[in-house]
Fold B12-binding domain-containing radical SAM protein.
Amino acid sequence: MKIKFILPALQEAKTPFWRPIKYSLFPPLGLATLAAFCSEEDEVIIVDEHIEELTYDDMPDLVCIQTYITNALHAYEIGDSYRKRGVYVAMGGLHATTLPIEAKAHADTVLLGIGETSFPLFLKELREGKPRQFYQTGTVCLDNLPLPRRDLLKRSHYLVPNSMVFSRGCPNQCSFCYVNSFFEKGQSFYTCKIDRILKELDTLPGKHLYFLDDNLFADKKLCHELFREMKSMNRVFQGAITVNSVLEGDLIEEAYEAGFRSAFIGFESMNRENLIKARKQTNINQSYQTAVKRLDELGIMINGSFIFGMEEDDKDTFLRTVSWAIESGITTATFHILTPYPGTSLFHQMKEENRIQSFDWNAYDTRHLVFQHKNLSKEEMEKGYQTAYREFYKWSNIGKASKNHEKVRMSIKHFTYAGAWKKFEPVWNFIVKQKLFPPARRILEKTLR
Ligand code: SF4
């Protein structure tokens, strides 16, 4: 069979906010994972519309489309176009999982949840001529998975081609998080065994790695084992962790020794009430200050993630949050406007309270307010969000935040990393255009070390 996997461009990748580098970071690993279930006789391609042109006038036997909320409408156009010409279309991913009936109008089959079990079953039944309309995740075991077909990914088009995941989902239940809606009908957290992880690690060339797990330290025992093994591998890696995982035990020290140099952390809010209402258990009653200090002493940079628009937020929240991040020496920050993704408990709650003001999925990009907030208007929220970014990334504030580290080495790293990431857009554009990723990656590795 001729099989074409497609990652349609996210809506924001076509707006003035578009930063080519931001969408040239990671290859579509999920599609490469599914491609591994195709047979040797199949002709398989993966197209990532963020880095290459997508044409859809060809005639494969099967098209598999990955949906997120802000590429869903575009994904539907692609699905419709192929189906009109008689091509079989399967859709999966976050959005198709949470709204399968909506997705089904544009696909022959919808795969719900993680595809590691359902996709091979679907392929088998399609070959037998009796595919179903919907496939649920079912029981998943990640241990005997084939390795992702990284040979189908265009490595040279990405800054971080070595991305990897060894778990799926997260054991926590934050009300706004789409991760749980993805697993709504089953277990919400799975991991691979250590041997499988090491086998995959072995296939990744170079030093730099990015673990894309939603919550990297969620299985502490497994992480202890993994980091002990990684100590001698001379890697540097980044990944997403939680506040409590920094404070409990000595896992963070082991991670550092294994090469962990940059942590993405969801601080979300400075307000305890907000955290309680959002069920952000990993942050409630945890000292952000102590967690930040511990990471700083070790030499791990922080990419802090913050949400505006939680229940208790008001006009002062934006600058209060930015001031805290600067005073704490947070290296880079990502700000979001709270977004009730379909399928989350936040969405159900807001719908019940009749507060959702837009069902245009393209506006669910965390830059727009799509619900009624009790203290802030849409204009105030979006202006506050933009102000936060502008203030945090002013040269003067990058300089100020860089000074808030114990060691000079961390101050230099901070200044270089934050400045390079946000202040040299023409340089990044040139790198993306000329595909100069290998030298850029070497500089990234050096900065992280
Ligand atoms: S800890 Fe992070 S990944 Fe887990 S449910 Fe909460 S927001 Fe989602």
